[in-house]
Please model this.
Amino acid sequence: MRYFLVPFYLKSNYVQVEFVGGPVCWNTRIFSASAGSPSSIFQVERSLLDSGFDYEHDDPGATNIEPFKEFTDVSRGVRMLGAAAVDMCHVALGIVEAYWEYRLKPWEWLLIVEEAGGVVTCMDGAKFCVFDRSVLVSNGVLHAKVNLSAAVISIIQEKKIVEMQVCHRVLELVLLERIAPATENLKSKQINLSLWYKPENCRTEL
Ligand SMILES: O=P([O-])([O-])O[C@@H]1[C@@H](O)[C@H](O)[C@@H](O)[C@H](O)[C@@H]1O
Model:
């Protein structure tokens, strides 16, 4: 999909992304971080998710079929909108719960997700920088197990708390626990997920 992004950085939590020059249906779409927030849904089975596949159709694409199928089976669906920027705006505004994809370009990453309160990492869980070749963005609560301590987990399991059965399933289905191993597997096969061209002296750490 062809589009131009016009990000406005006005003040904290007020990032806007405007789509101009694309197909007619996108011309008038403006997303603002202050217009909504990531959803608070924490159950994968109640989530709508997004992903995508790059043009190269090689190992990362083949690998992404695994989480794509798995989450299609257990969630309310995995959509492919074909435009990473739109996918990320949809996470920021709570239209979908999460989005992941390999091999995006640096200009496709949007600050709007973090400004709106979402979470962004690489698909192996590593800290994300714009030149990384994999990205997982989510509403935060679906991202990883880190939200619940080991102590809490053991109490849930030990006491077999009925109301927590759903929660227990959530623990098994958080996104990163499924997506990170597939990504580690790719890396162990020496598939190139290294940084996209990063200009010399370009600082990405603040
Ligand atoms: O082609 P383009 O619009 O620059 O970028 C596209 C991404 O926005 C999309 O998420 C992905 O699935 C496509 O393969 C392609 O990378």
Observations:
- Residues 1-12, 162-166 have pLDDT under 50 and may be disordered.
- The chain has one domain: 4-162.
- The helical segments are 24-27, 59-74, 84-92, 112-116, 150-159, 165-173, 175-188.
- The pocket of L-MYO-inositol-1-phosphate is lined by residues 1, 52-55, 82-84, 101, 108 (CB under 6 Å).
